[in-house]
Each structure stands twice: as C-alpha cells, then as structure tokens.
Amino acid sequence: MTVGGSGLPRLQELAYLETIAKAVAAGLPFEQIRLALVDHIWGVRQSTPGDPPDPTEYRAWRGDEKKYVRNVTDAIKELMRLGFVDNAMLPSSGNSAYAHKDATYQTTTSGRAWVDLLDTDRRAAYDDLLPRLVLAHPGFTCFLTTVGAIGDRHDSFVVPLLRWGDLPDRQRSQQTYRAAIGDFVAGALASSDLGWRADATEIAASVNEYLDRILARAQARGKDPFPTVRTFTQTCEEALVRLAFSKAGCSIDYVSMEIARRWSRWLGLASFTYHAPGPYALRFWNTARIELDGTGSMTVERRAGGEWRDKALDALYDHCQQERASGTTYVPVWEVRAAVCWKLRIVDDEFDRAVTDMIAGRRGEQLPWRIHLDQVSVGNVPSSAAPFVLTTTAAGTRTYNVMTVVPKPTN
User: Fold this and answer.
1) Distance of CA 180 to CAs 106, 125, 165, 204, Å?
2) To bridge 260 with a disulfide, which of 15, 143, 336, 386 should be the other Cys (CB 3.0-4.6 Å)?
C-alpha cells in the first residue's frame, strides 16, 4: 500500500472507513470486522441497478476468511494513520488472516468522537474527516489543487482522449494510434485552456514510453498486455492522465488519481465525467472551494442545496429541449446528468436530488413543465454511466434510463 509521497492508500471507498470504524469501536475482532465490511459491500451490490446478485455469492464471501482482508487491513491502517485507532499488528495478506481473526483494536479518543458524530450527524463527520485526509495525504491535496478546489486554479481540468473509432477505418492499429495521439491531444490543448500544456512531441513520447514499459514487462512473462482495443486505449489514457497531472504540478499515479476522484465526489468536492457535451475527454471540475488557514482547519463552500438544484432543473430543461429540437424526444439520463453537472460544476447527487424533488412535488411547482422518466434503454450505455434510481412509497425502487420534459396539464 502506498502511504508516502503523492500516492494514496488503495482505499477505494471512504464508506469503508465508516463501517470499519464502527466495528472497531464496538470491540469486534478482526473476523467480525471483515464480516461487517462484507455486509456493507453486499448491501451496495444489492442497491446497484442491474440484475440482482446471487445470494450464494454472499454466503461464499462470508465463509471465505480471506475475502476482503486487504480492504479491511487498508481501512484499519488508514484509521491508524488518521489517529482514530491505536497502532497494532495487522494481517499482511489473506493467507495470514487466520492468525488475527480474534484480534481486537483500540479506538482512540478522537476515533470514538468521530464514531459518535457519525451516529448524530453523518455529514458533519465527513466534514471533520476532510482536513485529516488533506493533511495526511499530499497526493489528495495536489489532486484537489489541480482541479481547483484548493487555490485559485481553473474550475476544470480536462484530458483529451482519442477514440479508436476516430482513426480512419482501414488504418486502425496500435501503431497508427500511437502515431496519431501526440498531434491529436496537442491540437485539443491548443484550441482552449484545459488546465495544462504540452506539445505533440512530449505527448507522443510520454505515451509511447509508458506503453513500451508495460509491453516489455508483459513480453518477459510471455503475455500480451493489450489483448483488446479497450485495454490498449485504457493504457494510453493512463499515460495521458499521468502526464497531464504532472504538467499541472501534481505527480500522481493513475490509480491514486482514481482514488482521489472517488474520495472527492463522495465528499462533494469535485467530480468527473467522460460524457459531457463536446469533444471526447476525461473532464474534472471542482464542486466546492476549500480555504486552508495554515493551522489544519479549513472551510468548505460547496455548490449544493436548493439554489443549485433549481439551477439543475433549468439546465435539465434546456438540454432536453435542445435534444428535442434535433429530433430526439427521450434522452439517456446519464447524458443529461453529465451535461447539467458539467455546465453548473455540481456533483451527480445534486442532479439526482433535484429530479427526485421535482417528481415528489417538493421543487419546481411553479414551472410549467414536468419530468417524464422511462425504464427503456436507448443505444449503448457506457460502463461508467449510471441510470437514475427512484424510491417511492407506492412503487418501491425503480431504475430509469431515459427522460424527457413535457408540459404540465392545464385545468
């Protein structure tokens, strides 16, 4: 696990800290802490849109003492680093978990206070966690600075990406892609201020060196590192992201960037999308401004709440009307969400809450239109795109993939 420099611990979800901190504070031994995390992850799986998970898989998770040991260990290490749990020995891997199954851990005074705050004001608890994460992890701080949540940088940071399909039909190959990527990305950077600069030669060299290192390691093991177009273009994206952040003064590896963007979205500080209108790119933007006072405390002003949800409804209407003018009635929810959140620089949850509020009659009562949702799908849904999930007392939980706006009936 990376703990120094600009890297981040491989803690994919901050919610793991919450689950495990409560289990530790309750005095549970390591195996029971693991089972608490299993239950949390399973609950998330059950609430995720798509086919329901197989209950036999859940039983297998609970019965396998090695399952999610690394996640538990990483989360407890982070709680120790943050001063919430006293230092103690932990399993080095799933294979050694059996020797620690009955081990318990001691919550510190600040750790107990944080768990108590989780029970009374969960949002305040995560606001309390934020400065601790910033102070503990320079990589997280540099990510937030690059996307403009800290300091006076731009409100957004964009990494242009070259689609495989943008190459000429009969010239699509890894070598052609390699040859084209430098000029393509440099051209996009020259067309507008995307938060970083590099010329075509530097871009091409950086991507090709990254690919060649991975290729050499894989060939030494007799493997093909790029068996599909997706794995090849994904690796090129990793190289571009590393270069972009480094040119902006933030030396962060790709996995740490993924973790930082998850943490940032969870904390309401920044967001990202591949699906905003315009040229294909990975777009980051801050959704809050953080002020540091030099003593470890900070203030956070988020673009969230009633005013921003009203703006989200207005932007939603405008986008749907633009699509209608081009002949499209129903628009994929993920497409509308990306367009609105990118335009307003808000997190996805603000969009979803605005839609939920309007459907429930809590927002937009004065507007002459309403939202209509449908469960059908239109076209291919990107793996990184989420549908809209609505829970009501009457209908339960339903997943919707497309939306439109229609006039309210007049009486």
Assistant:
1) 56, 48, 13, 8
2) 143
